[in-house]
Automatic annotation (TrEMBL):
It comes from the Eukaryota. Transmembrane segments: none annotated. PANTHER family: REGULATOR OF TY1 TRANSPOSITION PROTEIN 107. Residues 542-555 have a biased composition (Polar residues). Gene3D superfamilies: BRCT domain. Residues 470-584, 631-666 are annotated as: Disordered. Residues 481-494 have a biased composition (Basic residues). It comes from Sporothrix epigloea. This is Regulator of Ty1 Transposition.
Length: 899
């Protein structure tokens, strides 16, 4: 990174880094050290994990999908990619901002252009448009050049690029022309010199064979597209199955309101609520829009929607909710069209359209079908005379030929996407919608259209940022304007069915009873912790987070997979059938009919009179005796005369006696993970009693794999519980809080018990407040894509370290001498100067483990990775500081020689 660069390149810069899937915390740690070395300041997150926007001069992010993006733009803060830092160091001065914008609408932000044998007028047009779309232009060919625009390979720049084997692409000007028309960056492959396939395609033309059939037609393969991941439908048919994942943190300290128009069954709704709670979130009561951070609904109408939109709450639909759960990362619901609530009556003007598709496949076809229906048009799978539009990815297919013959309007998918995003029908005469580049399937750029938020605001929640309910003329009119008629539209609606017991129900509602987790320092043995009681109620408060871990659901004994029911009678259900679905009733009736002969025989035997005491045993005699035995058993169990009388009366009437209602527990106000607490050591009966006392006061002691609000410890400790829970970023209390609550018998203010341990911070070289702020920013993703191996015979066992590593998002594997473990070779980066990714081995200094070191090093190098054999303290310190760091001190050969 230009070690000889000027030492004060970033002397005026204060950087705020945005961790995410495209900018990992380990990369942020390296960049922070780099900018600090060259005079800059790397800002720590705020206490709540948010960016310090008021202190920052630059926001570094490789994506615009972070919550404070709009705030940064409003404050006119430049948002740049991490490549801007590298480029500035290479130049020895601050680079331009515009070419390094992460905004995907800047389609040429990664393009550094130089022109060869291009006429002057065309050169100026291409250069100007490239700069307007975020690109850069240079007169000479350099190592930073990514594209050479040329007509032939005879120019000196093209020859020089081939001779020096520069990694730049030599393209025809046609590529720029087609990209400018579409407003999207398409694949350069058909335009690459010296033998561009597009010229072969164009030279053949579109000829006929006399029978109206096209000849010389080029078949273009349907590409894959990652922009549609989790965004093909607004109505997901099943909740995401997270499998083994235990560090779901996307809802940490978020309050979520599920609107009533999400017409899902009670079981499915319970699964969704449990997933939100598992991710650290809290459910807000319906109608309490002011108290929520996220508002989840299906239709973009109604007073609650208007209020939430005007208050700038995050508004998305069920598909968006499942998308952020699956990826455990926040993204804007305006980024993908089917992640935002749909218009109840569609887009005005689409009700008269009949649309079909061609040359789209896979998820792209499903996405367009659902988008057409959401816009309010009628979709047909086959081409008919009454079709009004054909949406096609290229102009070569039988449907395209029929469209030309029948005068049906033929457009690409950008027409339906931009019509939906701008909430009005776009003109089909715009060349943008009728451009079909040769040798290109436009499915590669599908799903890249954003919502136009100004249009949404004007049509659905007018009134700026003012909240609904304020005195003013816009308040009531906005509701009337945004609330559409409740009548069902006259087009078919997709129905989704749910079987009786969803499989994911068992996963998200499971409480890991009897698990033994380390409650002592990792150098000592761990002891079991009893499972706390759970409450059957749920309570939500805006000031104090309140929830129960698994209160609203019961784990079925034999869960069934969701979506298996294919009963045609349920196709008219609004979204998902609940627990009383017609399919379940039909199954119960079928089973009952099979038992009908046995039931009739039983009733007949009960009524048969006993004429002879020596008659065979059975019938009414047996039935009466069974009933009598039940009454006697209940009488002995309860032992109360009143109970006996009521039991006999109930038996005579043939009714089951009413059960006594147990006194309900108060709602949970605090979920606490407790570690290092000595009061209950070797006193299991006392622990059980005091846990119940705490629960009666609204405090629930939970396991370290469950969502929590607080972490309580007597001091800073490096126990597995402490390090696992720290990754979630909860408030850390002194364990004296638990003792004082038990002794005083009432809840106490937590502000007076925040953990302060200066000696522990000095001992572990950590500042607890900074660690918590980083944890809240990382949200359990500190070690994303970091591969950690652990020797099988390490002290405390590899499972202790596995829990800590995976709580921070690492990829953890056990390494054995003869396990056949290998690292899949990783292709080296595009830049030769980029270092290999490190891979870690946790090991002690035993002779058996030392024998593994050479084998591990060879395995890592064979996989193009950098081997780092470290002591376990490296992982413990990383987890405690919530910062990816490395020093030669942690190398096993150095660490164990000093200890």
């Amino acid at each position: 990174m230009a070690e000889d660069g000027h030492k004060s390149v970033f002397g005026t810069c204060r950087f705020a880094f945005v961790p995410g899937r495209s900018l990992l915390p380990k990369t942020i740690a390296e960049l922070s050290r780099t900018v600090t070395k060259y005079g800059g300041v790397a800002l720590e997150p705020e206490a709540n994990g948010q960016l310090q926007l008021t202190e920052a001069s630059h926001i570094v992010s490789n994506s615009i999908d972070f919550e404070q993006y709009n705030d940064a733009i409003d404050m006119m803060l430049p948002v740049v990619t991490s490549a801007w830092i590298t480029h500035s160091l290479n130049r020895g001065k601050l680079a331009q901002i515009r070419p390094f914008s992460p905004d995907p609408r800047m389609i040429f932000s990664s393009v550094n252009l130089t022109c060869a044998d291009i006429p002057l007028g065309d050169k100026e047009a291409i250069t100007g448009a490239t700069l307007a779309f975020g690109g850069m232009e240079s007169k000479d060919l350099t190592r930073l050049t990514t594209h050479i625009c040329a007509l032939t390979m005879d120019h000196d720049k093209c020859k020089e690029a081939l001779a020096k084997k520069l990694r730049c692409k030599i393209v025809l000007p046609h590529w720029f022309d087609d990209c400018f028309k579409l407003g999207k960056k398409i694949d350069e492959t058909p335009y690459l010199l010296p033998d561009p396939p597009i010229l072969r395609s164009l030279s053949g033309g579109r000829a006929g064979n006399g029978d109206g059939q096209a000849t010389n037609v080029v078949t273009v393969p349907i590409p894959d597209n990652l922009d549609l991941e989790g965004a093909t439908t607004p109505l997901p048919d099943a909740p995401p199955n997270l499998g083994y994942r235990s560090n779901l943190t996307v809802f940490q300290n978020k309050r979520v309101l599920l609107a009533q128009d999400i017409n899902i069954g009670s079981r499915f709704r319970a699964v969704v609520i449990e997933l939100i709670k598992r991710g650290g979130g809290h459910i807000v009561d319906d109608g309490n829009v002011d108290a929520c951070d996220m508002y989840i609904c299906h239709y973009r109408d109604g007073p609650d929607y208007v209020q939430a939109a005007q208050a700038r709450k995050t508004i998305g639909n069920l598909a968006w909710l499942f998308h952020i759960i699956t990826n455990n990362e926040w993204c804007s619901p305006l980024r993908r069209l089917l992640h935002y609530p749909v218009p109840r009556e569609g887009i005005p003007g689409f009700e008269n359209f009949v649309i079909t598709l061609s040359n789209y496949g896979g998820e792209a076809r499903i996405y367009l079908e659902n988008l057409v229906v959401a816009a309010g048009a009628k979709f047909t799978k086959t081409m008919r005379m009454d079709n009004t539009h054909l949406i096609t990815a290229c102009d070569n297919s039988e449907k395209c030929e029929a469209a030309r013959d029948w005068n049906i309007q033929m457009v690409n998918h950008l027409w339906i996407e931009e019509s939906y995003a701008r909430c009005e029908v776009q003109s089909v005469t715009n060349p943008r919608y009728t451009t079909f580049p040769g040798r290109t399937n436009l499915g590669e750029i599908i799903g890249q259209t954003f919502f136009d938020e100004t249009k949404l605001r004007a049509l659905y929640y007018a009134g700026g940022n003012d909240k609904i309910g304020k005195a003013g003329a816009h308040s009531s009119s906005a509701v009337k304007k945004a609330t559409h008629s409740k009548k069902a539209v006259g087009r078919p609606k997709k129905s989704i069915q749910l079987d009786e017991e969803p499989e994911v129900l068992a996963d998200v509602s499971e409480v890991q009873n009897g698990q033994i987790d380390g409650d002592d320092d990792l150098s000592t043995s761990s002891e079991p912790e009893p499972e706390p009681e759970t409450n059957g109620k749920d309570h939500n408060s805006r000031q104090v987070p309140q929830t129960t871990a698994n209160a609203s659901m019961a784990t079925p004994s034999r869960p069934r997979k969701m979506g298996q029911n294919t009963d045609k009678e349920n196709e008219s259900s609004p979204l998902i059938v609940g627990s009383a679905s017609r399919s379940a009733k039909d199954k119960a009736l079928t089973k009952l009919h099979g038992l009908a002969p046995d039931i009739a025989l039983y009733e007949k035997e009960k009524k048969r009179s006993i004429r002879d005491l020596k008659a065979p045993w059975g019938g009414k005699r047996a039935a009466d005796l069974v009933d009598k035995e039940k009454v006697e058993a209940a009488r002995k169990k309860r032992g109360s005369p009143d109970a006996e009388a009521s039991e006999e009366t109930a038996s005579e009437d043939g009714e089951r006696p009413a059960k006594k209602n147990r006194p309900s527990l108060p709602p949970v106000q605090m979920r606490v993970v407790l570690t290092g607490y000595q009061r209950w050591v070797h006193h299991s009966s006392k622990e059980e009693t005091e846990r119940r006392k705490l629960r009666n006061l609204g405090i629930q002691i939970v396991q370290d794999n469950q969502p929590c609000d607080f972490l309580a410890a007597p001091c800073l400790v490096r126990t597995m519980k402490f390090l696992k829970t720290l990754a979630r970023g909860p408030e850390v209390l002194n364990a004296q809080f638990i003792t004082d609550v038990l002794e005083k018998g009432k809840l106490l203010p937590t502000e007076d018990y925040l953990l302060r341990d200066t000696e522990g911070e000095a001992r572990f070289n950590v500042v607890l407040s900074k660690s918590l702020a980083r944890a809240r920013a990382n949200r359990g993703r500190l070690l994303w894509h970091v591969v950690i191996y652990c020797a099988a015979d390490i002290k405390n066992g590899p499972e202790s370290y596995r829990e800590i590593a995976e709580a921070n998002g690492a990829i953890f594997k056990t390494y054995r001498a003869h396990s056949g473990t290998t690292i899949r070779p990783v292709a080296s980066g595009e830049e030769e100067s980029q270092p290999c990714e490190p891979v870690y081995l946790l090991t002690s200094a035993s002779t058996a483990e030392r024998a593994l070191w050479p084998k591990f090093e060879q395995m890592a190098r064979d996989g193009n990775m950098l081997p780092r054999i470290v002591a376990p303290d490296w992982l413990l310190e990383v987890a405690m500081r919530q910062e990816v760091l490395f020093d030669d001190h942690f190398l096993a050969e150095n660490f164990w020689s000093k200890n």
